[in-house]
Design a protein that fits this description.
It is a single chain. About 35% of the residues are buried. Among the domains are: about 150 residues, Reverse transcriptase/Diguanylate cyclase domain (Alpha-Beta Plaits); about 200 residues, EAL domain (TIM Barrel, Alpha-Beta Barrel). The chain has about 725 residues and is an alpha/beta fold. The protein is rod-shaped and about 200 Å long. Strand 22, helix 20 and strand 23 form a beta-alpha-beta unit. The N terminus and C terminus are likely disordered. The strands form five sheets. Strands 17-18-20-21-22-23-24-25 form an eight-stranded mixed beta barrel, surrounded by six helices. A six-stranded antiparallel beta sheet has the order 3-2-1-6-5-4. The chain has a five-stranded mixed beta sheet with strand order 11-12-10-15-16, with helices on both faces. About 50% of the residues lie in helices and about 20% in strands. The two termini are about 70 Å apart. Bound molecules: ligand C2E and calcium ion (CA) (2 copies). The site of one calcium ion (CA) has 4 residues, from loops. The site of ligand C2E has 24 residues, from strand 18, helix 14, helix 15 and strand 22.
Length: about 725
Amino acid sequence: MPRSHMSTARRRRHIVALIAILFIAVASTFAVIVFRSIDTILNTANQIDDARAVDAARGAVDALRSQLSGTIHDNATWDGAYKQLNSITRRYWILENWALTASDNPLYDTAVVIDVRGKVIVAYKDGNELGVDPAAYFGPDLNTLIGQAYNVRRQKGPVPVQFIQTKGGIAVVGAATIRPRLSATRVEEGNLYVLIFARHLTPKVVNHLARAFRIDGMTLNSTRDQNMLNVPLSDVWGRDVAYLSWPSKRPGSQSFLAVRTQLAIGFAILMLFLAQIVIVGFAIIRKLREDEAASRHKALHDPLTGLANRAGFTEFIQEAVSDPNGSIIQLHLLDLDGFKAVNDTWGHGTGDNLLVAVAQRLRTTLSEPAFIARLGGDEFAIVTVAPQGAREREAVPDIIQRAVSTPFEINGRFIQIGGSVGVSVAQDASAQTGELMRTADIALYQAKDFGRGMTVFYDQALGSVLDEQSLLEEQLRQTLCNEGIDVRYQPLVDARSHSLRGVEVLARWCSPTLGPVGPDSFIPIAEKTGLIDMLGLQVLEKATAAAAMWPAISVCLNVSPLQLKDQYFVNRVAATLDRAGLSPKRLTLEITEGVLITEPDQAHRAIAALKALGVKVALDDFGIGYASIGALRRLGFDRLKIDKSLTAELDKDPKAAGVFQATVALANSLEIPVTAEGIETEAQAVIAKLSGCDLLQGYLFGKPVTGDEITAQYFGSPPIYSSGQP
Ligand code: C2E
Ligand code: CA
Ligand code: CA
């Protein structure tokens, strides 16, 4: 798969992951901030309310004290009271005005009057006689209060009021000297009575206070309750004697409780939202990963067969080769035989189906773990990786051969193909992918060369043969580029007069390293490498140029079947003849029957076109193939050349002579003239003549020679054959 594509997908994935993480981080931070803020708001609200409640409670306590302080002041600073205390009805007056009224007085519940020596005049609580000595009832703090009362008067301050633990509970207590309001009245400072009022903090009083100051759940306690809000009640020395305590209302927390459900829902939604983001993020990442995997799969696989493609194959083999465990890697390159014919005959649809069937067959028959790839067209690769000495290495090629040669049923018809297999084995991990591929390729090349259904294992010798072949190929290419192909001309003589009637043009090549190489060797190389068109034209060019210098003898030229495939071949021949100024009638092209079987239509078209041009066409090497003379007639051949292998038997085997004679007779009966080639003896020449051949060719009349030699031999002097010449 392309690297750039891979890295783009990975980069995209990273970005999405980053965004998701960022998003989650931001959302979480946001959530934390929101919750911290809510918490702070709640606490602040609680604190504010607590402070308000404490202030209110302090206010209540102050109110309690100032109320009692004011009440004492109002009652003690009273002209009437002052006068009455110094009268004999004072006790009665005190009871009437202060003691009995205390029973249902909301301002005080206890009233005590004492004289300057501390003698109790009246001590009443809740409208009844106190019954105990006020000093015992109020404790030692009372004296301090009384002392302050005398003092305060002199300083003209408010009546001092403090909290005291009395025998009847916690009470707010105050004392003041009883004196006239009017300053005109003379005051006997040394003989003043003291009025003491106390108000006990009964539950009723505390409740009343709580209600008045809107403090719920307020109680009176002797100790400070840590879980409650407290306001101390202090005595004359500033010590806390009791506490008014009440629970914090915590309105923040209360309101939080009220919105708790909504908040929880909101939070849940937020969490769901975050979870959704995470899920979606991961889904996106997974999708990207899947996409990446899919596009990677696509890049490494052949869409038609589902097998690995060349890229997938390369990746696999590179990994296999670099495996350090020293396994044996066996690479099989398979090329289908006859696939092209299936494609041409039944169409590409069937061809494709056949490829799919082959892939399927390979998959099912190669049961052992084998990596199968389609490298393109009808070429497959099968790789097996096995530990050293694990199994017979011939087994896999056999399986492959059997798999492809068993007929396939495609679209209701049975199709028989085959395969050529080239095998290369890497024994160690040091093997190079390229080397493995190259050697398997050479083996396949060789297998195909041997024919259908062959398997070839690569070995060193094969390598050197093919190395030599590729060297020759290269040299031949060079020679052709330099127009360095040479030609020789072999005489064709009249069977009766032995006079020169024409020449056959034969290509010659001298390799710079190997010396002269026969056409039987280099023509196949030229055909294999596609150089044959170039070679054919060069030979034609040279031959027509030479022939134009000679009188009206015919020029016979060998043409490879492959040249007939070139759609411009006939045009090129016409153009060359034109350039040389040679009449088409003087040219005969010799073709072998192979082309009639492999490419009948093309051969037919080419022959018709050549004949239309005026060029003659001869069938070469007749007798070694299968063509019937009737078929040749239909195709319009102008001449038949009987192969030299048949000629060679003429003077040795009477039976062969009989076949020869019958063949020539049949051809002649269809008005096809016959040339006998390879005549080496007088006897052969005679029999060929008597059989009906009109032209003879062979070493007896002349070996292939240069154009100059032909000119010198035949046209320097009268062109007449004299026996004894080479
Ligand atoms: P061919 O067409 O059958 O050519 C005749 C071959 O027989 C020539 O071999 C020739 O030298 C050889 N020959 C001729 N007379 C005798 C004889 O009396 N005895 C024996 N033993 N051999 C004889 P050459 O030149 O080696 O050519 C071999 C083949 O190469 C030719 O067979 C032809 O098929 C092919 N060839 C040669 N030149 C060309 C060319 O320019 N183009 C193509 N396509 N093929 C060519
Ligand atoms: Ca020939
Ligand atoms: Ca021949």
